[in-house]
């Protein structure tokens, strides 16, 4: 059986690291098994869903490399959901309820006060046709609940192992609202059946929902829709580095903002794909390599800790691994393509690709030299070699040392500050030929250039 998975985001906002991790794990599992990945836009909420959000979801996924094999919009499949609902109604598994939210809340409070579990009491099943007609005459419209069997539902979870949910401890879930809007569950199950999804992979906060959804799968299969319940995997959730819920204090966790901040897609996917697993937290060479090494057996049971310091470290690794051929179009777009030697000289000092513009300014200027000792700068200028090549720096610093008596940090730091205006940066032996003798002379004289 070929593996087929799906990612079903709602186009009501930005994609963030939490739902992207779900998309990523689905993609890695499918591609590692030679299977397919489905993008299914959950736009059944016609009021909150927007085309802009839908477009941005596609942009973010493509940028991350999470391309899809099939794509659907749930808003185009309402007829199919209506058909499934009618079959469940005819089978007595979907029933009309007329309680208001206030009435349900009062019942829950009474149940809790009596020490009873706050689950729906199925009072609507006792309504006669006359009572229903009277309620509708008052202007009430029914919401529709799925009648659970009240049994222990078990499955072998790819991530958690053997799992069981007792649906007797749950309220019958509402599948259709009073206004006729389908809630997430029924369209999702119908689509999983129709699209022949083999595995549903999501966060462990859905474990309880899975018990009810398996019963819905089974009910629809009994009514001739589908033949098999998919497999399931429920991943531990993401938490912050301190073990607490992810916080806005970490900055934006939206992919569109992370892209604007200069993060590399392979750094984001390597981070999200490896945290919470037994793999070393290192940047992968490619998504394909990440997929080839993916296994649910590597996943721990504890929440995965999302630490921006780890992401920053992986991002630097990713930038350092970019060769000139890959970097060239991006350098050109920034207007700083100074050649392969320049890129190979500076890339190990970059944490984010965009920082290359600052490195380019060291070469092209203008640089305001930092001169703390004018006599030292003048002495250095006197012994500056006529030809600045790959050997010039070593010869020059030896000459400056002999002339001034400076050595170690007292020799190299003043020269770096004069020539670059910065206390840290790439190897000066490689940078000096890029800067060139003319600019070096100006800077040693204290002139910006």
Structure commentary:
The chain is an alpha/beta fold and 449 residues long. The chain has 19 helices and twelve strands. The mean pLDDT is 96. The termini are far apart. It has helices at residues 17-32, 51-64, 78-90, 101-113, 129-137, 185-194, 207-222, 255-260, 265-274, 287-292, 308-320, 324-334, 340-346, 356-364, 374-382, 392-404, 409-420, 428-435, 437-444; strands at residues 4-7, 36-41, 70-73, 94-97, 143-146, 152-157, 161-166, 174-176, 199-203, 231-235, 238-240, 304-306. The radius of gyration is 31 Å and the shape is elongated. The protein has a three-stranded parallel sheet with strand order 1-2-3. The protein has a three-stranded antiparallel sheet with strand order 4-5-8. A two-stranded antiparallel ribbon has the order 6-7. Helix 6 packs across helix 7 and helix 9 packs across helix 11. Helix content is 45%, strand content 12%.
């Amino acid at each position: 059986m070929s593996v087929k998975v799906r990612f079903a985001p709602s186009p009501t906002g930005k994609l963030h690291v939490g739902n992207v991790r779900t998309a990523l794990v689905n993609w890695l599992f499918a591609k590692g098994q030679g299977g397919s990945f489905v993008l299914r836009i959950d736009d059944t909420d016609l009021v909150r869903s927007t085309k802009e959000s839908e477009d941005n979801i596609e942009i973010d996924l493509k940028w991350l490399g999470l391309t899809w094999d099939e794509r659907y919009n749930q808003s185009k499949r309402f007829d199919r959901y209506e058909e499934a609902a009618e079959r469940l109604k005819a089978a007595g598994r979907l029933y009309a309820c007329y309680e208001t939210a206030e009435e349900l809340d009062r019942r829950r409070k009474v149940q809790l006060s009596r020490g009873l579990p706050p689950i729906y009491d199925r009072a609507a099943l006792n309504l006669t046709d006359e009572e229903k007609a009277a309620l509708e005459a008052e202007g009430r419209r029914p919401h529709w609940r799925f009648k659970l069997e009240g049994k222990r539902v078990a499955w072998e979870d790819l991530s958690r192992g053997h799992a069981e949910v007792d649906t007797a401890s749950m309220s019958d879930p509402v599948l259709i609202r009073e206004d006729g809007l389908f809630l997430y569950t029924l369209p999702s199950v119908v689509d999983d059946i129709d699209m022949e999804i083999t595995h549903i992979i999501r966060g462990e906060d859905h474990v309880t929902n899975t018990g009810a959804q398996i019963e819905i799968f089974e009910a629809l299969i009994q009514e001739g829709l589908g033949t098999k319940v998919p497999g399931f995997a429920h991943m531990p959730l993401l938490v912050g580095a301190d073990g607490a819920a992810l916080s806005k204090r970490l900055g934006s966790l939206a992919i569109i903002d992370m892209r604007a901040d200069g993060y590399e897609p392979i750094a984001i996917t390597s981070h999200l794909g490896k945290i919470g697993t037994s793999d070393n937290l290192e940047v992968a060479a490619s998504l394909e390599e990440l997929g080839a090494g993916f296994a649910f057996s590597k996943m721990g049971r504890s929440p995965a800790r999302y630490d921006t310091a780890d992401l920053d470290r992986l991002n630097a690794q990713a930038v350092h691994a970019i060769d000139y051929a890959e970097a060239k179009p991006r350098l050109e777009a920034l207007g700083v393509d100074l050649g392969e030697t320049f890129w190979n000289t500076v890339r190990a000092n970059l944490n984010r690709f965009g920082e290359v513009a600052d490195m380019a300014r060291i070469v092209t200027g203008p640089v305001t030299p930092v001169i703390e000792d004018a006599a030292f700068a003048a002495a250095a200028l006197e012994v500056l070699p006529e030809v600045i090549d790959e050997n010039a720096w070593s010869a020059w610093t030896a000459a400056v040392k002999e002339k001034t008596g400076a050595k170690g940090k007292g020799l190299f730091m003043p020269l770096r500050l004069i020539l670059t205006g910065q206390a840290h940066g790439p190897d000066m032996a490689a940078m000096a030929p890029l800067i060139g003798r003319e600019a070096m002379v100006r800077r040693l004289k204290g002139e910006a250039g």
